[in-house]
Amino acid sequence: MDLVTPGIGLIFWQTVTFLAVILILGKFVWRPIMNALKAREGSIEEALRAAELAREEMEKLHADNEKLMAEARVERDQVIKDASVLASKMREEAREEANKITQKMIDDARHTIQLEKQAAINEIRNQVAEFSLQISEKILRRNLENESQQKALIEEYLKDMKLN
Q1: Is 46 helix (H, G, I), strand (E, B) or coil?
Q2: pTM, rounded to two decimals
Q3: Digit-coded pLDDT (tens) for 61-81
Q4: What is d(CA 75, CA 78) in angstroms, rounded to the nearest whole number?
């Protein structure tokens, strides 16, 4: 039974050794361990604060990014609208220019037709006058072939002149 029940001397020395180990550990080991734990706890808290700040900064950046995207969309829509208005204006100007050119061509064609018509009328008048002279000449030659007809015609013209 000696083996199961310890002696008083053994208990005393175990207690003294235990207290010495506790004192040595308390003086040399516990403080550095506690300081290391406190430092670790502080660095973890600092890391958590930095992570929170980073998250807040990311939210701000995300909000700014959304704002910039919205502004870019508005600007894009405005550019598209302006381009559409400009294209419409250019089409209208081109249409007006084409109408002006077409109207000028029509006016020029009418003027040319009028000039050609007048030239054709003058040509016809000249031809009619020439034909009339030729016909009159032939009629007079036929009527004036003998001398008695010439005298009768002269007398007739003289009568007409006196009446007038």
Answers
A1: helix
A2: 0.41
A3: 999 999 999 999 999 999 999
A4: 5
Residues 6+ apart with CB under 8 A from 116: none
Longest dimension (CA), the chain: 202
Paired tokens of 126: 């000249």
Which positions ≥6 away from 153 have C-beta within 8 Å?
143, 144
Residues 143, 149: contact at Cβ < 8 Å?
yes
Helices vs strands, H then E, count in the chain: 3, 0
What DSSP string runs through 57-91? HHHHHHHHHHHHHHHHHHHHHHHHHHHHHHHHHHH
Question: Which residue stretches of the chain are H helix?
Answer: 8-24, 31-143, 147-163
